[in-house]
User: Fold this.
Amino acid sequence: MQDLWAKIEHSVKIERVSAASPHLTYPLILDAVGMRPPEDCGGPWGYAEKLEALGDPQHEYDEEALDTLGDDHDPNAQPDIPLIEARLEALAKKWAPRTRRKA
Assistant:
């Protein structure tokens, strides 16, 4: 669950609108860049500070950053697209219109 007070913003660019394809499920992912911040990291500003701390062992929040992010955290790693697709597929099934049964 995202911290509602963190005010994280996402940019969505609509490049074109096309007719729906019967062979695809919606929503779908077209592309993703970079990893999301972990939960409870202090929002975008806290995350940026923790990344800065990871790069400087003398930083006052170095230990906290290691505890929160881990020493193997790579903010430039590519997202797990198959995992995202699987989660979107589950949402598509959950949101799919259902036919009513006759009583």
Q: What stands out?
A: The mean pLDDT is 83. DSSP finds three helices and no strands in the chain. Residues 26-90 form one domain.
